[in-house]
Design brief:
The protein has 16 helices and 15 strands. The protein has 531 residues and is an alpha+beta fold. The chain folds into 3 domains: 201 residues, no CATH class; 155 residues; 166 residues, no CATH class. The strands form 5 sheets. Strands 1, 3, 7, 8, 9, 10 and 11 form a 7-stranded antiparallel sheet that branches. Strand 12 and strand 13 form a beta hairpin. Helix 4 packs across helix 15, helix 4 runs parallel beside helix 16 and helix 5 runs antiparallel to helix 6. The relative contact order is 0.11.
């Protein structure tokens, strides 16, 4: 393990792609460039709250918190070998083209030669979020608050341990500088603790990275960026001067479909699926006003900005991913002679996602996802959906408790085990109990077809249905505790979330359904992009 100044730094992105010729850090339109060189802005009193050991291991970084690593990860020091920059990109926001966006408060420090979780060589981009203004900051200050930074740290790592494709988080630092934010956009701003999160990924390229150049008819920069992307991440789609754009797009489509199917599996709602927040590698990226489905609700969005239109609601995430992929296809179209293969890729998304989602839904029930059983799985799954939307049911707990119901149990016995997953079990209407009684025989018949005993079914279900997820109210409690000076609440939550599928004695409070006090509390029910 190395100290941070001794890591194997690389700078392929800035060496191989066109950059902004200007060095001044002023707001402007950056043309014919993929990035702008910029330095982090120093902070007053950096305090490193967390240094994630598993991510340190990927970088071969010593996980010991030292003054030097604190200075670097708070943005106060750039060590030799680093080549800091902010990326240029655009994006469609809430379905409307927004033009140039770019890294307004994110600064990539460097690329680091490390390895992946399997020990294979892997380059990692390390990026500070909240490290000060860049040419892309528009009218903002380039800073971030503890509230949003802590949420990104926790969810990045929680998603990794849940098995969902994601960027990672290396560290979280307090800056000692207050940041003014209007959390609910209601004209009541307040000062909050400033923070910097260091996030890590093979790349932070997003759909908007390609859209910006296509929108400007800058096909030379677009081609250079696509070639760089293929050479580094999709080498199977490049041969000499030939770029297999359709093959590349299909791979991105497949990865995106899998990612969103995994979001639906665990109950994650991204909250702001703009094209500038969609990873070209199929990773969950940019944890802004995300939320976790507690009562199962396909219409729920955690984003207060999306409260009226609900474009990014839980159940609409597959459709938005499809739409976003179409925008990526349009951005890549200038590089091909025939756009029909690109259209076919985009048109294939609904079928690909549907297959993945069906497979995952059956596995959540302890059943084999891809198997000709001669049974009507559509009836089984649609009936389950009707149950989940028919009452306020905690999605996470319902699947965990269902794993404990003995096969063949009648509705009354099943409900006695499932009741704690309901938010108002005593008020459950008779028609909803009747719906459970009608659905269970279909489920038990399907279980019998597979000839699995209760022990095997429970094992299967508990290996795909987590018991611990970063619930909205749990995160808010940790945010408030950390703001008050508590330095144990955050590490404890992160430790629990490292093993999301295994019951941990003494930590039952982390698996409890949302309490009534959190139903409408800011941070527990709705969030904003303000961070």
């Amino acid at each position: 393990m190395s100290e941070i100044a001794s890591l194997a730094f690389e700078d392929q992105f800035v060496r191989e792609l066109p950059g902004d010729p200007r060095a001044d850090n002023t707001l402007r339109q950056v043309m014919k460039a993929c990035y702008s060189r910029v330095q982090p802005t120093a902070v007053a009193r950096p305090e490193l709250l967390v240094l994630v050991p598993e991510v340190c291991a990927l970088l071969d970084l010593d996980p010991t918190i030292t003054p030097e690593v604190t200075e670097v990860l708070a943005g106060n020091r750039v060590v030799p070998g680093m080549a800091p920059y902010a990326a240029c990109y655009g994006g469609h926001q809430f379905g409307t083209w927004a033009g140039q966006l770019g890294d307004g408060r994110a600064i990539t420090l460097a690329e680091v030669a490390g390895h992946d979780t399997e020990g294979n060589p892997q380059r990692w981009e390390i990026q500070l979020k909240g490290a000060g203004p860049t040419p892309y900051s528009r009218r903002a200050d380039g800073r971030a608050v503890l509230r949003s930074s802590l949420r990104e740290l926790v969810c990045s790592e929680a998603m990794f341990h849940l098995g969902v494709p994601t960027t990672r988080a290396l560290s979280l630092a307090l800056t000692g500088d207050p940041v003014q934010r209007d959390m609910l956009y209601d004209g009541n701003p307040r000062h909050e603790p400033g923070a910097v999160v260091c996030r890590v990924a093979p790349s932070f390229l997003r759909f908007g990275s390609y859209e910006i150049h296509a929108s400007r008819d800058d096909h030379a920069t677009l081609r250079a960026l696509v070639r760089f992307t293929l050479e580094r991440y999709y080498p199977q789609y490049i041969s000499g001067d030939r770029l297999d754009i359709a093959g590349f797009l299909e791979d991105v489509m497949q990865r995106t479909a899998f990612m969103v199917a995994e979001w639906m599996r665990v109950g994650f709602v991204h909250g702001v699926m703009n094209t500038d927040n969609m990873s070209i590698l199929g990773l969950t990226i940019d944890y802004g006003p995300y939320g976790w489905v507690e009562p199962f609700d396909l219409d729920w969005t955690p984003n207060i900005t999306d409260a009226s239109g609900r474009r990014y609601r839980f159940g609409n995430q597959p459709a938005v991913a499809h739409w976003n992929l179409a925008q990526l296809g349009r951005a890549l179209a200038p590089l091909v002679d025939d756009v029909e293969p690109l259209r076919r890729v985009i048109d294939a998304f609904p079928g690909v996602f549907s297959s993945l989602h069906r497979h995952t839904a059956l596995r959540k029930l302890g059943l084999t996802g891809h198997r000709d059983t001669g049974t009507d799985d559509e009836t089984l799954l649609s009936g389950m959906g009707e149950l989940l939307v028919g009452a306020e049911i905690d999605m996470t707990l319902w699947f965990r408790f269902l794993a404990e119901v003995p096969s063949g149990s009648p509705a009354d016995r099943a409900f006695s085990i499932l009741r704690e997953a309901y938010y108002a079990p005593a008020e459950l209407a008779s028609d909803q109990r009747t719906a459970l009684a009608a659905w269970l025989p279909t489920y038990w018949a399907r279980v019998a077809v597979e000839n699995i005993d209760d022990q095997e079914r429970s094992h299967r279900m508990n290996s795909i249905n987590p018991i611990y997820v970063p619930r909205n109210y749990l995160l808010q409690q940790v945010i408030e505790a950390t703001e008050a000076g508590n330095r144990t609440a955050l590490p404890e939550l992160m430790e629990v979330l490292r093993r999301p599928y295994v019951e941990q004695p003494g930590r039952e409070k982390f698996a409890e359904k949302r309490p009534d006090w959190a139903r409408n509390k800011p941070g527990c029910s709705m969030l904003s992009c303000s961070s």
